[in-house]
Design a protein that fits this description.
Layout: E1 3-9, H1 11-21, E2 27-33, H2 40-44, E3 53-56, H3 59-68, E4 75-77, H4 83-96, E5 103-107, H5 110-119, E6 129-131, H6 138-150, E7 156-159, H7 162-171, E8 175-177, H8 182-203, E9 206-213, H9 226-246, E10 250-253, E11 258-264, H10 265-271, E12 291-299, H11 302-319, E13 323-327, E14 332-335, E15 343-346, H12 350-358, H13 363-376, E16 380-382, H14 383-390, H15 394-406, E17 410-416, E18 425-430
Parallel strand pairs: 1-2, 1-3, 3-4, 5-6, 5-7, 7-8, 12-13
Antiparallel strand pairs: 9-11, 9-12, 10-11, 13-14, 14-15, 16-18, 17-18
Helix pairs in contact: 1-8, 6-7, 14-15
Organism: Parageobacillus thermoglucosidasius (Geobacillus thermoglucosidasius)
InterPro entries: Rev_trsase/Diguanyl_cyclase (IPR043128), WH-like_DNA-bd_sf (IPR036388), WH_DNA-bd_sf (IPR036390)
Protein name: Transcriptional regulator
Length: 433
């Protein structure tokens, strides 16, 4: 099966990347050109379910999409180091004989450029480098280069961003664009192909889905009889058999109202949109009120997958009726599926185990808090936010935050008061490493 690879980049770099990817029969490429960093997410969104992986022409588009946080598939970008930078510097010296001290650079760390120069016997310091992490606007980069050139400190700019190049050309600044080198593209493509092989292996792993179905929930008082219960259970079994066929699995009845389906990781990943949603398909139509809990387990063996499914099922029961949870082969837990408060956390973290020994909090609780902070993109929250994500009472959340505060792992940094007559809510800054 060919890898559906989305390639997003500026026009010039995209052409170079495609010249390489077109040589690989393992890839089916979907090129996407952008001209403005602010449009990248809008360009990405229509292809989210049409690609298996993404390749970006550079660090900026990659960082913008990563910070967006809505892409679950593997993402890669072509680095502009090595041959890419050597080629640009050679061209500058050949055309204009400008020494590196009179050039302004962006994207790179100064040590990267100086290390490359040392490799060819040039021990020069590079004074003008705009290093940044994550995304940045073309206007900000252009102003950096323009300011230095206007002051007479530099004679040309070296940029990794196509849009910054276009801005600088408008301003009249001599500018050179660092384009991806063929060797760098080939290296990333090889990594993509190896990742695809690994994912195919993962998709073939055994997965077990464990369900508890309450047939009585759909029966009214007027129709309550043993015959009616039997008919309802037969209907449930028939629906689950169709569902099992849909996901290429086999159904096993594990007691009254308990069902187990053996299938593959890939089949469940597809039907749950990468383990984010509860399937809305006709095979499970009208069963959303009847499924009391569902646990999905992934494992290297059928036994391990079934054990993980049981663990996920018990966690789903704790969260409340209709909850779906997943336990993966690396012992991480994800869920509840289909809810805004969905998180992924782990029981196996040496750092959190050390913190657990200092507090009265379990590794599971600490891991959940860490996952919630990652999802929120900040290290501050109040008790009500914590309670909503952990599905616990606010007073229990306050006890957890107080415990962290007492052990020096959290501090009160402010208060919020969403209701004028209500009690102010303390905002805690949490330090879990």
């Amino acid at each position: 099966m060919r890898i559906r690879l989305g390639i997003l980049g500026a026009d010039d770099s995209l052409a170079i990347i495609q010249n390489v990817t077109n040589e690989y029969k393992e890839l089916h490429c979907i090129p996407v050109i952008y001209w403005d960093e602010e449009e990248i997410i809008d360009f990405i969104r229509p292809y989210m379910h049409q690609v298996d992986m993404w390749l970006f022409s550079g660090q900026v588009p990659y960082s913008i999409v990563k910070e967006w946080g809505e892409i679950d598939c593997p993402m890669f970008y072509v680095p502009h180091t090595g041959a890419s930078l050597y080629r640009t510097l050679l061209r500058i010296y050949y055309e204009r004989q400008i020494p590196v001290q009179q050039l302004s650079f962006d994207t790179y760390h100064p040590s990267e450029i100086e290390r490359l120069l040392e490799e060819v016997g040039i021990g020069e310091r590079v004074p003008y480098v705009k290093h940044y992490q994550g995304g940045i606007s073309a206007a900000a980069l252009a102003q950096y280069h323009y300011g230095l050139w206007k002051q007479g400190l530099t004679k040309a700019a070296v940029t990794c961003l196509r849009t910054a190049q276009l801005e600088l050309e408008k301003l009249g600044v001599p500018v050179y664009r660092v384009l991806p080198a063929r060797s760098a593209v080939e290296s990333v493509v090889q990594m993509i192909i190896r990742t695809g092989e690994m994912l195919r292996f993962q998709d073939a792993q055994i997965a077990v889905q464990m369900m508890e179905v309450d047939s009585l929930f759909a029966i009214s008082n007027e129709t309550f009889s043993t015959d009616e219960i039997y008919k309802m259970e037969m209907k449930v079994t028939e629906k689950l058999l169709k569902y099992a066929k849909k996901i290429q699995g086999s159904l096993k009845i594990a007691g009254p109202g308990r069902y187990v389906i053996f299938t593959t990781r890939g089949a469940l990943k597809d039907i749950t949109d990468h383990y984010k949603i509860i399937p809305t398909i006709k095979e499970l139509e009208d069963m959303d009120r009847e499924i009391a809990a569902c646990g999905i387990g992934v494992g290297r063996t059928a036994y391990e997958a079934e054990i993980h499914a049981g663990k996920a099922f018990l966690h789903a029961k704790k969260y409340g009726r209709g909850t779906w949870m997943v336990v993966f082969d690396d012992d991480t837990i994800a869920g509840p599926l289909g809810r805004a408060e969905q998180i992924r956390y782990s029981f196996d973290c040496a750092e959190l185990q050390a913190i657990s020994q200092k507090t009265n909090l379990s590794v599971a609780t600490l891991s959940k808090i860490s996952a919630i902070l990652r999802k929120l993109g900040k290290n501050e929250m109040n008790a009500y936010e914590l309670a909503a994500y952990m599905q616990i009472l606010p007073r229990s959340a306050r006890r957890i935050l107080h415990e962290l505060e007492m052990k020096g792992l959290a501090e009160v940094v402010g208060e919020t008061n969403p209701y004028p007559r209500g009690r102010p809510r303390k905002v805690y800054r949490i330090f879990l490493g």
